[in-house]
Amino acid sequence: MTYAMSGEIEFPAVRDRQKITIRRFSSVKIDSNRKNLTDTATIVLPRRVKDFDRFDIKNVFQTGDPVIIRLGYDGELHTEFEGYIAQVSTYVPVVIDCEDEMFQLKRKTVSISRASCSLKELLKAVAGEYPIECDEIPIGSVRYANKLVSEILDDLKEKMKLYSYFRGKTLFSGRASNTGTRIAVVVEKQASDSLKDKNVEKVMVRVESLQWVKKKGQKRKLIAMKGEKSGQVITIKQPNLTQIEIERIANDLYTKAKQPGLDGELTLFGVPRLEHGMIVDLSSYLYEERNGSYYIDSVVKSVEIGQGYRQVAKLGNKTTM
Fold it and tell me: Phi/psi class of residue 180: alpha, beta or left (left: φ > 0; alpha: ψ in -120 to 50)?
């Protein structure tokens, strides 16, 4: 079966200009990774495009303008990116760099102080204008003064291995990404692959939490450890968590670190459509040891004249779901 690649880039009406829809472009690249705060897109346009060649590029496309990218085959398009222009190059060819909804949280400053709270409570306090989907995780005490919301989310990633990202206008956060969608993929029927078994190494997870002892006015340190003493150390530090809570965190991180999986990349054409968080039911005629179900950690989608539509997926841990 032969598919005809199709796509369109929509720049909705803004300021005093009308909506612009472009179906002729040089290339599009979309990078989506559950461990990165921001999905990005790079659009390359020929200088003379029918919809705006009579205008000054700088006036047509400005930082903060909304943009929607739809890609597919035979006119059946899916929204693959929705966000804002972050930067425009007016040289030839025209290059437009875009960021998803995190663009807005990189420009929003908040202050918050809580003696104890959950992940959901924190997210509602700093980004309550968005629908929120997150794990029920206690994060202890928090204190941020005049911080960008994106910096707070990045702090959660660095200190507690909690990853935040947008799907459309919904903010997700937690240690796992699962869309509930699974697809079947036969390795030998795809464009290419560089897959190999992931090395499951020794690891030691150490979770620390400082707590105030009210009667004595002193601090005490709670510690939970899980793993092999000679393993790579993963350290989490977050104040005001209970012993039960830090032990749960240690067990969760250790279990994830010890799960088997695949390293490398799997390159598909434009179908089936991929997103991080999907589960790939992988099978191979030549390498039966690869057969199994794996989470998708990241997807880079690209469309380029002469190259067609490609999706490069990085697979993560194996799952028994």
Answer: left
